[in-house]
Every structure is written in structure tokens, then in C-alpha cells.
Specification:
CATH class of the largest domain: Alpha Beta
CATH architecture of the largest domain: Roll
Distance between the termini: 25 Å
Largest sheet: 5 strands, antiparallel
Number of strands: 23
Radius of gyration: 25 Å
Helix content: 25-40%
CATH topology of the largest domain: Dipeptide-binding Protein, domain 3
Shape: globular
């Protein structure tokens, strides 16, 4: 009887959720969306969107929208290869300092009242303006750092328009991953006319060159983008994009958004919340059979390393440096990462048996020789040898990762170390981590660009927090020397070999516990074709096709 009561209440809550969402969407529907005849890609963004200016596209929600509205010189394909975008080709000088881009001469900005004639072609001067704008102190763009290696003189950054279709950048030192930085949304081109016309309101009146143009945005409710009829890219001789628009809703409650997706009102869901993972997935991480007629599950490697970091800049409490290092190693040996993934994540991800560099990037430890496997007896031996029994250490994490924190706590306590758990708000974690106030903290690192340097920068002493992302305060002269000289090496293979050596120095010091390498998990309505996936979870909608909507069945 008790089970029946819970079942009835569950149904009641679900029906109530459906009713709420139905009323919500009915009240918020706009003519801009309803006139697209259903050929529209719909997804929810529970985190919200706060700006449509690409200069502030610092996380996936803003990057996803930015990539629909804007283009840069180059882009990444799903294999993370650098491909042409507005630049149809480029040349790099032999010393690796000068990058010369030859622009496609049929790229137009979206039609907008900011232009005298409705629109105009993109010129090299537009990149000079856009890149200088990104570096302005008054703009305070979080993307300014992508130009840290660009040469600076008394006249400013070394950006130059050699003519209308030739744009050049000069670096202060060779940096092979630089093209990858230019593929980021930060490096999008924007027109001076629109930025000056709208001023601060450019954030809600974006004008770009992307496959979709801005139509409507009611903050916290709905964002609608429409097809750019004059987009410059083609696929198999056909002009992209192939759909008429994109609609983004902003339901904060992920459970309600999940119900909308199951109902067929949303086309796409990225990742999975612990509250409904068992509803969709088997324990082996496969889509349950009752959904297979209507939903496609796409799993792919993700350049995201989930880890726990130690603050190693100082010794811990009254422990000697040798004792503290033994403590870090003992914790590494004590965690059964395979079991953790199986029971807490339905098998999603790969155990962190190697270094910080994830699979898919040159420098990854494919032999699993530099990391730590589950060896509890080794952990207990270290605890005994270095007199660590009963030593207390606190793991700081957020509410979203409490389940992993409790698992780690139980495993570490079993080998004789007293691990306590501290749950803090995300903003507090970020602040205390940057200030070096957390001894042991959960973190993750998603690649901004497809090069292992992205991960190694976390341990370079020149990036010590709060100046940079070296939150562990790791400092090793050998590591720093290799880091500073790796980009002057002309051989990519030698650079990749050094990446592995540098990662091994971090792991030998047991600076971090690598928990797992994540996977991109995409649930897609089967009416959507050609969505695909990629290791940094970019959302590329210009090539997708959508069939007419059909009733969604769940059994």
C-alpha cells in the first residue's frame, strides 16, 4: 500500500509539472517562433543567459548561443581540427610569430538598422576593431587572456589590416596552440557600427555573421534566433543552415525541463542530472529500451578532467613535507574510481588512472603508468609508515558533487585517514580556492582549446592563483623550465613527449587525485538529424536537419 501511495504521488507531481510547463510555454510563446512552421531546434538552458556579446562567452551556455550568432577567423570541426571560417586560408611565418589571414570576401554582417544600407561585408579592419575591443580595460572581458602572447608596443596590440581582405597578427613568442585560441567565441568579429549604435545594449542586440540572426530575447523566459538567409558557408553545395530557427527556454528546474524533453517539447538535452539518470539510463550507461523509438543517445569523449586538488604550496598542519606527500599518495591509492563511476554515474566516464591530460589529446598517458590505481594495501602501508593514522583533512565541494564526496570520504576513511566533508556554495569555493584557503578541494577542467598546454597551465608557477589557475600552488623548477621552452620546439612530437613528462612530475608529487575523464552525453529527439558531438561539447546547429514533429511515445 505504501508503494502505491508513492506511485500515485509521483504521477500527481509529474502531471502537475506538465501542467505548469504547458501554461508557462503557452503564455510565453511569441509570433517570432510560431511562424517558423515547426522547423526549429528547441533546447533549455537552466543556467540562464546573461549576455549575447561574444566578448563575455566564458561558459558553455554563452558559447553555444554565441556560436550560432557569430564567426571568427577559424573554427573547430567535430574532430577538433582547425578549419577555415571567415579566413579562407592563412600563413604562419617560419619563426612562428607572424599569422597572416586571407579573408573570405563574401561574408556579410546580419542586416540591422545600425548600418546605413542594412548590412555590409566583413573587412580586415573589423577584426582589428573586434580584437582591440576585447583587450580594452573598460570592457573587462574575461576573454582578454587569449591575446596574452600577442606582441604589444606603445601603439597597442600587434593587429593589422594589410588591406580589406588581409589581416595579420604578430606574437611576442612562438605559441603553436594560438590558432586554437582564435577558434574561441571570444575571437568573434563584431561591427563597430552596431557596438556604437547600441552601446551597453549591444549585449541584447547582437549583430554578427553567424548561421542564425537575433530575433527576440525575454531574459529568463525565451530566446529566439532565425535563419541567416545570407550565410556564407555551404555543405555539399547547399547553403547552410538547413533549419529555420533556434528557440532557447530558461526553465531553472531541471526536472521540469527533463519532463518537457521526454514529452517531445524540447529536442536536445546535454548531460544528465542525478535525479533522473536512472530513469533514462541502465546501470551500464545505455539508453533504456522504452525511450529508443524517440530518443538517440550520443556518447563521446569529453576533454574534461574531474579531479580533487591539494594545496601543496605549504606543508599541511604539523606534517613534514614527506608526510604530506605520503598522505596525498595514500588518498590517491585508496579510491576505487571504477566502482565510483559504476554506482554513481551509471558507467559514464573513464576512471582517472592516468594524469591530468585526458584521452584525445597528444600527451595523454595511454599506458596508465603515471597515475594511481586502486591499491588500498599500498595506502594502508603509507599510513602506517608515515604515522598518518587519524590525520584529519577536509574535502571542500559543492552540493552537486556531494555523492562523489561521500564516496571518497568512505574510501579514504577505510585506510585510516580521517576525511571530513565540507559543502560550500560554488561562489565560495571559487573564492577560497583562488585565495589558497582550501587544503583539499574538488575541481574540474574543461579544455578551452584542443592542446594539452591547457591542462599543464594549471601547474605552472607563473600562473599561481589568484593571478592564474594554479590553485594547487604547485611549483617545480624542472616543470617551469619545460613549460617555458616547449613552444620554441619545432617538432610537435618532441613537444607532445614533453607534455607527458610534465604531467608525470605533477602526478609523482600527487598534487591531484584524478577522479575520471568525463564523456559528452547528448540526448536528442529523433526528429533531429546530423547533430553529432565533439570532445569540447560545442553545439553546432548549422548542419542539422529536422523532420516534422511526431507524437512522442515513452513505452
Amino acid at each position: 500500500m505504501k508503494q502505491d501511495q508513492y506511485s500515485f504521488l509521483s504521477r500527481l507531481l509529474i502531471l502537475g509539472g506538465f501542467l505548469f510547463v504547458f501554461l508557462f510555454f503557452t503564455s510565453c510563446k511569441r509570433p517570432a517562433e510560431s511562424s517558423i512552421n515547426g522547423n526549429i531546434f528547441r533546447y533549455n538552458e537552466s543556467s540562464g543567459i546573461f549576455t549575447l556579446d561574444p566578448a563575455f562567452a566564458k561558459d558553455l551556455p554563452h558559447i553555444w548561443v554565441g556560436n550560432q550568432l557569430f564567426n571568427g577567423l577559424v573554427a573547430l570541426n567535430d574532430r577538433l581540427e582547425i578549419v577555415p571560417a571567415i579566413a579562407k586560408s592563412w600563413d604562419i611565418s617560419e619563426d612562428g610569430l607572424d599569422y597572416t589571414f586571407h579573408l573570405n570576401q563574401n561574408v556579410f554582417f546580419h542586416e540591422n538598422e545600425a548600418f546605413k544600407n542594412g548590412s555590409r561585408i566583413v573587412k580586415a579592419d573589423d577584426f582589428v576593431y573586434s580584437f582591440n575591443r576585447l583587450t580594452e580595460a573598460r570592457l573587462a572581458s574575461p576573454g582578454k587572456w587569449i591575446f596574452n602572447v600577442v606582441e604589444q608596443t606603445e601603439n597597442g596590440y600587434a593587429f593589422a589590416a594589410l588591406n580589406d581582405s588581409t589581416f595579420q597578427i604578430r606574437l611576442s613568442k612562438a605559441f603553436p596552440p594560438f590558432l586554437g585560441l582564435l577558434s574561441m567565441t571570444y575571437a568573434s568579429v563584431v561591427p563597430r557600427e552596431a557596438v556604437e549604435y547600441y552601446g551597453h545594449d549591444f549585449r541584447q542586440n547582437p549583430v554578427g555573421t553567424g548561421p542564425f540572426r537575433f530575433k527576440y530575447w525575454k531574459e529568463g523566459v525565451k530566446l529566439v534566433l532565425l535563419k541567416n538567409e545570407h550565410y556564407f558557408e555551404q555543405l555539399d553545395g547547399r547553403q547552410m543552415p538547413f533549419i529555420d530557427g533556434v528557440s532557447v527556454s530558461f526553465l531553472v528546474d531541471k526536472q521540469i525541463a527533463f519532463l518537457e524533453f521526454i514529452k517531445g517539447s524540447l529536442d536536445f538535452m546535454s548531460g544528465i542530472d542525478a535525479r533522473y539518470k536512472d530513469e533514462l539510463l541502465t546501470k551500464e550507461g545505455k539508453l533504456k529500451s522504452k525511450f529508443k523509438n524517440n530518443i538517440e543517445l550520443i556518447r563521446a569523449p569529453f576533454l574534461n578532467t574531474e579531479y580533487i586538488g591539494f594545496q601543496v604550496g605549504n606543508t599541511y598542519r604539523d606534517l613534514s613535507s614527506d608526510q604530506y606527500k605520503a598522505l596525498r599518495k595514500a588518498i590517491n591509492f585508496s579510491i576505487d574510481k571504477e566502482k565510483m563511476l559504476r554506482y554513481l554515474r551509471n558507467g559514464i566516464g573513464h576512471p582517472g588512472w592516468s594524469g591530468m591530460i585526458p584521452a584525445g589529446l597528444p600527451g595523454y598517458d595511454s599506458s596508465e603508468s603515471i597515475g594511481y590505481h586502486y591499491e588500498p594495501e599500498k595506502a594502508k602501508s603509507l599510513v602506517s609508515e608515515y604515522q598518518l593514522k587519524g590525520v584529519q583533512i577536509t574535502l571542500s565541494t559543492t552540493a552537486d558533487y556531494v555523492d562523489i564526496g561521500k564516496f571518497v570520504q568512505a574510501q579514504v576513511n577505510e585506510v585510516g585517514i580521517d576525511l571530513q566533508l565540507e559543502v560550500l556554495p560554488p561562489a565560495t569555493i571559487r573564492q577560497l580556492r583562488a585565495n589558497g584557503s582550501l587544503a583539499f578541494f574538488r575541481g574540474s577542467w574543461v579544455a578551452d582549446y584542443p592542446d594539452a598546454e591547457n591542462y599543464l597551465s594549471l601547474f605552472y608557477s607563473g600562473n599561481l592563483s589568484p593571478k592564474g589557475p594554479n590553485y594547487t600552488r604547485f611549483s617545480n623548477p624542472q616543470f617551469d623550465q619545460m613549460y617555458e621552452h616547449m613552444f620554441s620546439q619545432k617538432s610537435d612530437q618532441m613537444r607532445f613527449t614533453n607534455y607527458l613528462k610534465m604531467d608525470s612530475l605533477v602526478m609523482e608529487d600527487a598534487t591531484v587525485v584524478v577522479l575520471f575523464y568525463d564523456e559528452v552525453l547528448r540526448f536528442v529527439n529523433k526528429r533531429v538529424q546530423n547533430l553529432g558531438s565533439n570532445p569540447i561539447n560545442l553545439l553546432n546547429l548549422k548542419q542539422i536537419k529536422i523532420e516534422k514533429s511526431q507524437p512522442v511515445k515513452t513505452n
